[in-house]
Amino acid sequence: MATDATSMVTAGAAQRFPQPVEADRATALQAYLADHDHACPLCGYNLRGLRGMRCPECDFALQLQLAIVERWRAAWIAGLVGLAMTLGANLLGLTALLGAVLLGLRSSSDWAVEVLILGGPAAVAGTCLALHLKWATTFVTLSTVKRWLVVAACWSLPMVNFLWIMMLLR
Ligand SMILES: [Zn+2]
Predict the structure, then answer these.
(1) What is the pLDDT along the chain (170 residues), one digit of tens a residue?
(2) Is residue 13 part of a domain?
(3) Quick one: which of 72, 79, 124, 159 has the fewest CB in 10 Å?
(4) Is-contact 132 57, C-beta < 8 A?
(5) Is residue 114 located within the same domain as residue 81?
(6) Are 112 and 33 within one domain?
(7) Distance between Cα 98 and ligand 1 center (Å)
(8) Same domain, 52 and 107
(9) What CA–CA distance (Å, rounded) separates 165 from 153?
(10) Both 55 and 80 in a single domain?
(11) Cα(117) to centroid of ligand 1, in Å?
C-alpha cells in the first residue's frame, strides 16, 4: 500500500502537520550529503555521497534535521537550576522537619510556623518553575539581555529564600 504525506496525518493537535515520508527523508539526506562533507555524529565517518539512511561504518540510522541557531539553552537551563534548587532545598527542609516531628525531636507548638516558613518559598519556587517550563518557547524569542535578566530573577529567588530562612529560623 502506497503511503503519502497526507495519509500520515492523525487526529490531535500534536500532529497537525504532515510528517515527511521515509522516501522524502532519504532523498533530502542524500541530496545534502551528495556534495557536503559531514562526519557521522556517532563514529565520525565521512558521510559524503551516502546511499540509504544509515552510516556505512557504524550502521547508525541518520536523518536530516532543522535546529534553532539562537543560543538560548544555556540561559534557560541556568534559570531552571536556580528555581529547582530553591524548590529542592525547601522540600528537603520540610522533609527534615517532618522527620524531626515524627521522631519527637520537635515540640508540636513550634513546627507549624516552620512549615509555613519553608512551604511558602517552596510554593513560590514551584510556581516559578512551572511557568519557566510552560513559557520555554517565549523565552527563546527574548533578546539575550532579557534572557539573562530572567536568569538573574531565577537566581535571586534562592538568595532571597536563604535570607528569609536565616532571618525567621534564627
Ligand atoms: Zn557512523
Answers:
(1) 333 433 333 344 445 666 667 788 899 999 999 999 999 999 999 999 999 999 999 999 999 988 877 788 999 999 999 999 999 999 999 999 899 888 988 776 778 888 888 999 999 999 999 999 999 999 999 999 999 999 999 999 999 999 988 888 76
(2) no
(3) 159
(4) no
(5) yes
(6) no
(7) 52
(8) no
(9) 19
(10) no
(11) 54
Residue 78 structural domain: 73-169
Strand partners, 46: 39
How many structural domains comprise the chain?
Answer: 2
DSSP assignment of 90-133, as one string? HHHHHHHHHHHHHTT-S-TTTHHHHHHHHHHHHHHHHHHHHHHH
Distance from C-alpha of 137 to C-alpha of 135, rounded to nearest angstrom:
5
d(CA 67, ligand 1 centre) in Å = 21
Q: What is the pTM of this model?
A: 0.64
Are 50 and 115 within one domain? no
Yes or no: say if 56 and 43 are a contact pair by the CB < 8 Å rule.
no
Judge residue 158's burial from the number of C-beta atoms within 10 Å of its C-beta, 0-12 exposed, 13-18 middle, 19 or more buried: buried
Rounded to the nearest whole angstrom, what is the distance from the C-alpha of residue 50 to the centroid of ligand 1? 11
